[in-house]
Amino acid sequence: MATPTYQIFAIKYAHVGRKAWGNFVDGDPHEDWDMPLDYYVWAIVGGGRTFVVDTGFDAPMAKKRDRKIVHPVEAGLEAVGIRHADVKDVVITHMHYDHCGNGALFPNARFHVQDTEMEYVTGRCMCHHQINHAFEADDVSRMVHHVFGGRVQFHDGTDELAPGITVHKIGGHTKGLQCVRVATERGPVVLASDATHFYAHIDSRRVFRVLYNQGDMLEGYDTLERLAGAKDRVIPLTQKASIVVADMDLMDGLKPEDHIWSTKPGGGNVVYRDRPISNTAMQSWWAHETKGVLARAGVPYRNMHVTRHTFATRLIRLGARIENVKQLMGHTSIQTTVDIYGHLGVEDARADLRLLEVEV
Ligand SMILES: [Zn+2]
Ligand SMILES: [Zn+2]
């Protein structure tokens, strides 16, 4: 019998605003653009069965942690024809509050959890606030009750839940995080959960702030790509980003291709055509591409960061209006342009004072 294929529903239930730097261990305050987080659970339907992946959090938890529920999980499931109380199988990718809350929603479900995750959330690591703040003791103790109630199916590494549905331990973000690989009509789809929060993480090989083991996290990116196979991904571009790109094209007559580099700079930061470029990837590309050109022209090399600062300072010194410098630098606020990028000195102040001298 052929392996069944499944439909996957992504159900967004909550949202939180955030600046980009807040999403990376090595976040730089210059990365001051909006990079909000959306919260999802997923439903896998096919072969006469339904699997829900993660349970999200409820309204009191949203209030406690200052998140915004956009659509309660039960309503989202209902919208795709799933009654939460009828669900028999729930995969818990990991035990963070945003993945295993909503305690009352699945009274008839069996929960699929990795051995390592259960050991992790009941062991010594939870003594550390730096790690335990993303967990809720109530969620953990409820899962312990489920263990005693015979409602937890443990997995150790890779396991098959049904023909065409497998779980794979990744670790990294938490010690026992697992992803789910699902057979669909367009090939295998991997629900990464927090193994990569954004494409920006997997594409630039940078890591999210909440972390158990950086090595496992980075290795996990390779595992995700291997499990997914061909990567014909659609990269979401926010409305704001599209407007900015469109504006740039109007300004200097460049085609979109001119903003998207198709170069392989080596190292971890491979730059692909038609994909947004992360800051790290761009810097790596810059270093790789400009060194040779500048050396041939007899110009000393400066990294992208220094070049951007010099560019902004030179413009300001030459009298460019600050609103335009902000626009050219892509800053979200003039504050950044003035406070961080304008390196004017005493000589510049003297030059400005000379503006008051009356010519005779
Ligand atoms: Zn998480
Ligand atoms: Zn999460």
Keywords summarizing the entry:
360 residues, alpha/beta, Metallo-beta-lactamase, Chain A, 2 domains, 7-stranded mixed beta sheet, 4-stranded antiparallel beta sheet, 14 helices, 17% strand, elongated, binds zinc ion
Tell me the layout of helices and strands:
Layout: E1 7-16, E2 37-46, E3 49-53, H1 59-64, E4 68-69, H2 73-79, E5 89-91, H3 97-100, E6 110-114, H4 115-121, H5 129-132, H6 137-148, E7 152-155, E8 159-162, E9 165-169, E10 178-184, E11 187-191, H7 199-204, H8 214-228, H9 239-252, H10 279-296, H11 304-317, H12 322-329, H13 334-341, H14 346-354
Parallel strand pairs: 3-5, 5-6, 6-7
Antiparallel strand pairs: 1-2, 1-4, 2-3, 8-9, 9-10, 10-11
Characterise this structure:
With 360 residues, the protein is an alpha/beta fold. The chain has two domains: 7-228, Ribonuclease Z/Hydroxyacylglutathione hydrolase-like (Metallo-beta-lactamase, Chain A); 239-346, no CATH class. Helix content is 37%, strand content 17%. The protein has 14 helices and eleven strands. The protein has helices at 59-64, 73-79, 97-100, 115-121, 129-132, 137-148, 199-204, 214-228, 239-252, 279-296, 304-317, 322-329, 334-341, 346-354, and strands spanning 7-16, 37-46, 49-53, 68-69, 89-91, 110-114, 152-155, 159-162, 165-169, 178-184, 187-191. The chain has a seven-stranded mixed β-sheet with strand order 4-1-2-3-5-6-7. One zinc ion is lined by residues 94, 96, 173, 194, 210. The site of one zinc ion has 5 residues, from loops.
